[in-house]
Write a structure and sequence with these properties.
Blueprint (H helix, E strand, L loop, with lengths): L2 E3 L6 E3 L14 H9 L2 H10 L11 H15 L8 H15 L5 H16 L8 E7 L8 E7 L2 E6 L4 E6 L1 H8 L6 H18 L2 H31 L1 H10 L1 H29 L5 H43 L11 H10 L3 H16 L9 H9 L26 H14 L3 E2 H9 L7 H19 L9 H11 L4 E3 L16 E3 L17 H7 L1
Antiparallel strand pairs: 1-2, 3-4, 5-6, 7-9, 8-9
Helix pairs in contact: 2-5, 3-4, 3-5, 4-5, 6-8, 7-8, 7-10, 8-9, 8-11, 10-11, 15-16, 15-17, 15-18, 16-17, 17-18
Length: about 525
Amino acid sequence: MGELFDLAGGTAVSGSPASAELSVFDRTFPARVAVLMRSRPITEAIVAANRQDWPAALYDVATFALAAIDLVIAQQGFEEEATYDDVVDGLTTLARRTAEERPASEHRRVGEYTVDALLNRGEREAPFTYRISDFTDEARTHQRRQVQFRLLIEREDPVRGEVVLNATRDAINALVGGLEFDVEDEQVANEVLLERQLAKGAFDAAERAAVRARLLSVSLAEDLHELIKNTRRDLRAVIQEWATVVPQRLAKAREHIAGRMEAEHRLLAKVRESLESDDQQVTMTAARIAALLTECSRRHDALHRQVIAARSVFLEEQDRQSFRPPALGHLPDLSREILTPLLGLDSEIALVVTDRWLSDITGPRPPKLPRLYRLVYDLWAVRDSTDDRDDDGDDEAGDPDPPTIGPDIVDAARRVVARIGLPARLSALLASALADPGLDSGIDRQRTAEILALAALWCFAPEETDTEHTASVDLTARILGPRAVADADDLKLDLPGWDGDDLIIVSHPDALATADPQPVTDHPWIHAETR
């Protein structure tokens, strides 16, 4: 008899060959699970569709979602990229053909629901975030890893002045087959396969290969577009790539594009021979394949122009960013000299200042997709160091810094939430914290209220949960619960020293629809502090 790997102790037990060890311990396993997660948002959209106000299982949301991604990819990279309304209109047509007896307004709601799910608008277009298990360290202990990705994103087209949709690499890979691949090698193999299928007359399989070729072309263009965008944004972030791998990449890209365009012309000649067939179905399929190959040829032609201009972009950005004279004016400390004094101003004065500042930096044509928090993070971001010396993590001496939030404050905040219960208004939680008899000092009560306010704001507008924000996510979950969310309804806080929306906080997203907690405007702690 062989041996079977024992999960608990890491030893082998009798029963099967010793080589039959679980693949979950292989270092490539988490990446495979991460690939599997790409389809999870679509699965969740299918489940949530059963709770909408149309009959359950009437519309095929999975087909609609992939059709939406395919429609975006088909126009991505060209002058007329797909807008939100373009994609919704296409899905509305599919919904109408699915259930002609249903009202037209419902057909459009189905289209909007599908596109919103792919954009993750329920979470304010934040990345889809999932946690997976990782057993691949040397000790084979259980660890949590975070998987983040987007499927569709919105961006402003500066030429058209419109907001358009783009598919991410994750969406392209999911539609191609859910695997990571080398785009160039995959495209060569795909064209050899397409040529053989055309030679055998397997037109259905050839059409699928042509669709795949288009997706691969989009993915190749996205790689170069990302490099050019990062170069124009901050040359220092990619200077090492330009010094080492980018010249070879550009040379290989030129050779690859030349080969692909030659192959596409050859395949088009083969397809055109089939257009004269007496079989109408073969003729229609050949016409679709010809259209797809023509689109790939157009994409490669545009990509070739980008490759040729890439080195000029590098030189221009080097001249603009590296050799420009230093600013003559004083560069303020954003946190100490601007944001902190601004937060201390009266709300009306602060609003005037911020309005003037926004109008000055955006100019007469503000962007279609302004994101203030992104601007603040970019201004605060630490530049990548060009120092090639290895960082030694053992150089730091002394004890680690103590936590900035004491456990007693966190416990007090949890007691307030348990005492008030959810759903609740932020004003109710603040009032209870500021009058908490279990806290000895007014400073502790104020800190407890501030932590509750910060947790509520995090639930209202969570940021991208990278390693930097993991502590904020955990702290919010400890105070308000792991699924807590917050929303605003234009009701303002009416408490001394507090300003902003009186948020509605619920324990899970489904509770928002019926939640109607009452605000608190009585301030009993004022009299206690003035006596």
